[in-house]
Amino acid sequence: MVNVILIAVCVLGLIGLASAVILFVVSHKFAVHEDPRIAQVGAVLPQANCGGCGYPGCSGFAAACVKAADGGSLEGKLCPVGGQPVMEQVAGILGLAVEAAAPKVAVVRCNGTCENRPRQAQFDGARSCRVQQMTGMGETGCGYGCLGCGDCVSKCQFDALHMNPETGLPEVDEEKCTACGACAKACPRGIIEIRLKGPKGRRVVVLCNNKDKGAIANKACKASCIGCGKCVKTCEKFEAITLENNLAYIDAEKCKMCRKCEEACPKGAIHGFNFPPRKPKAEEPAAQSNQSNQSNQNTQSTPSTPIKEVEPSKAE
Amino acid sequence: MKTFKIGGVHPAENKLSAASPIREAALPKQAVFSMFQHIGAPAKPVVKKGDEVKVGTLLAEAGGFVSAPIHSSVSGKVSKVDVALDASGTRRMAVYVDVEGDEWEESIDRSPALVKLSNRPELDSKAIVEKIKNAGIVGMGGATFPCHVKLSPPPGCKAECVIINAVECEPYLTADHRLMLEHPEEILVGLQLIMKAVGVNKGYIGIENNKPDAIALMTEKAKGYQGIEVVPLKVKYPQGGEKQLIDAVISRQVPAPPAIPINVGAVVQNVGTAFAIYQAVMKNKPLIDRIITVTGKSVKQPSNLLARLGTPFQQLIDECGGLPEDSGKIIGGGPMMGKALLSLDIPMTKGSSGLLIMNDKEARRAQPSPCIRCAKCVSACPMGLEPYLLSKQSKLEDWEGAEKNDITSCIECGSCQFTCPSHRPLLDMIRVGKSTVMGIIRSRAAK
Known about the structure:
The complex is a heterodimer of chains A (about 325) and B (about 450).
Chain A: H1 2-29, H2 36-44, H3 57-71, H4 83-94, E1 104-108, H5 129-133, H6 151-155, E2 161-164, E3 169-172, H7 182-186, E4 192-196, E5 203-206, H8 214-220, H9 230-234, E6 241-244, E7 247-250, H10 260-264, E8 270-273
Antiparallel strand pairs in A: 1-4, 2-3, 5-8, 6-7
Helix pairs in contact in A: 2-3, 2-4
Chain B: E1 22-24, E2 30-34, E3 44-45, E4 52-53, E5 58-61, E6 70-71, E7 76-85, E8 91-99, H1 125-134, H2 147-150, E9 161-165, H3 175-182, H4 184-198, E10 203-208, H5 212-222, E11 228-233, H6 242-250, E12 266-270, H7 271-283, E13 289-295, E14 303-308, H8 313-319, E15 327-332, E16 339-340, E17 354-359, H9 360-363, H10 376-380, H11 387-395, H12 399-404, H13 415-419, H14 426-446
Parallel strand pairs in B: 1-14, 9-10, 9-12, 10-11, 13-17
Antiparallel strand pairs in B: 2-8, 3-5, 4-7, 5-6, 7-8, 13-14, 15-16, 15-17
C-alpha cells in the first residue's frame, strides 16, 4: 500500500518536474519581448478604444507612441479623448516634451433645418444616412446638407451628439465632445468637421457644405452659402476666408474672430459660437485680442487654454 | 421549360401596356443630355453655347475606353452646358439644347426598308464594332454598359454564342415586348451583326413565355436566319440578369466576380440593343431615341413611346394622360430595380426603359419588423447568397466578413427584399456594403 502511494508520488513528482523544466525552457526560448513602456503608456490612456487617434484602440496608440518616442518626437500623436493632460503624462513616461495641441471640437456644418430647407421628397428606406446618400439628393433639394438619419449620433461613444427633433439636425454637446472624429468619418456627406475649439470656445464657422451654384443653393435652402464672396471681401486683411466650389471656408487658424463676415453674409450662413450676446446697438465685437471680460452665460464650453501656447513640459 | 436554377421570385406581372402599339412621342421644347448616360467615364462635351446642332450631331465624345459618345436627338441651338438633375438623383454635367424644327444629319438613312446582312458583305467584325462605338450604343436593358466593350473580348477569351436578352422580367415593362412584335427582322439582323462582330455562328433569343405572341413571331422569322434559335423561358424574376439568362439558356454558370460572361463563352445583349445596333450599322443612325414604357395602375393610357433622348419625363407622362392625382412615387425603370425620381424635369437617358407611376398606397414601404429567421431571402437569392447575413454585416460594417460571403456577387435584383415577410430593408443595406467592399477591393488592387 505504501509502495503504491510512493510510486504515485514519485511518478507525479517527476512528471511535474519535467513539465516545469520544459515550461521554463520554452518560456525563455520563445519569450516575446514587449517594451515595458507600452504597458505604462497604456495605463494612462483613457481606454475608450474609440480610434479617434487613428490607431486601432488604446494599445495600438500606446505602441505607436513608444515607436515614435524612439524616433525622438511625439509630433502628430494626440489622444483626443484624454487631450493635453494625458499627452503630457505619456510624454513624461517616454521622457519627451510635448507640444500643446489646441483643443478641437466637432462642428456640424449644416444649418438646413426643417424650416430653412423644405423637404421635397420622402425617403422610406432603411433609416441610415449611408443608404439615403445612395439615392442621390435625399429628401431635400440640397445634395450636400445633413440627411438627418443620425449615423453620426449612433457612432458617438461619448454621448456628445444628439438629434434635435425640431431642426432635424444633430447637435454637439461641447462639454462631452472629445473630437475623436468618429462622427466626421460616419457622415457620408462630410458635413462634420473637427475644428479648433477656439479661445473660450469661440469660433466663427460657415454652417453650410453646399457646393452648388448660388441659384441652386439658394433655392434649396434659406441658410445656404451661395458663394457670393462678400465674406471673402470683408476678410481681405486677414485672408482667413477662401471661396472654393461656390462655398466659403473660414480657416480657424487665421480667423481673428472679428465676426464681420457674419454680418456681411446675406444668407446668414456664417455663425459665431459661444460669443457673448451682442448689445442692442451694434458694439464693436471683441476683435483680435479677445480681451472682453463680459460674463458669457451663453457659452457651453469649458474655458480652455488659448491657441498656439506652447507648454514646455520638462521631462523629469 | 428552361429557367435558371437557383432562387428567383415571381412578382405580379402587371404588363398593362402590352397591347399598346409603339407610338412616337412629340418633340420636347428643350432637350437635356446628361453626360452620365452610361457606366464608365462620363462623356466630354464637344459643343458650346450657341452651337447649331441637328439630329445625330455629336454633342459629346467618349471620355475613355469604357465610355460612349452622346449625339443630339433634336435639332436646334445649344443653350448651355451646365449641371442638371438626372435620374441618379444628383446634379451632373449636361448639355441643354433648345429645339427648333426637326432637321436630321444627312448621313442618317431614315427609310424604313430592311437592310439585310447579305446586302452589306463588306462589313467585317472590326467595322461593325467601330460603328457601334461611334454610335454611342450602350446596354439598353438599363445597365447602360458601353456595347463596344462587351464586343471586344479580352485576350484569352473566346465567345461561343450570343444571347439576346428579350426576357423583360421586370413587371410592368413592355418596351422590349412591343419592339419584338413590331421590328422582329431588324432585331434578327442586329443579332447577326453582333454574331459577326464577335465571330460566332450561334445566337439565342431568350423570351419568357408570358409573351407567347413574341415567341411565335420571332420563331417564325428566325427560320430565315441561320444559327439563330428562340428559347422560350419559364417566367421567373430576375431571369433578365445576365448570369441568370446564361444559366437558363445554355446551362453554364458564370463564376463569382471578377469573372464575366465571356469567361463562359457567352455575350449577352438586350433586344433593344440589338435593334439599336441594326440602326447604327445599317442605317447610320446613332443612339438618339429609345422605346420607353410609361405605365402604372392609375395612368389613363399606359403606353410604349418611341421618345427622343433628353425629353423630360413630365412630357412623357402628359402624353399618357397626365399625372394621376393619387401618384405616390414615380420610378425610372421597373418596380424591382428602378429608382424613384426626385423631379419630373429629369430627362430620359439611354437607360430609361420605363416610367412607372405608383399610387400612394403601393408606393409606401411596410414598416420593417425583426428578422424571424425564415431564410426566405436565402431561397430567393438567384446568386445563392445569404442576404440576411450580408445586410447584417453591412450594418455592423464588417466589410471583411461581407467580402468573404461574396457580397460583390450581389446583382441587386431585390428578390430578397421582395420576399421578406418582415419587410426588412435588406437590399438597402447590402447596396451600401457592396459599394464599400468594391471600394476596398479597388484600393487594394491599386496598391
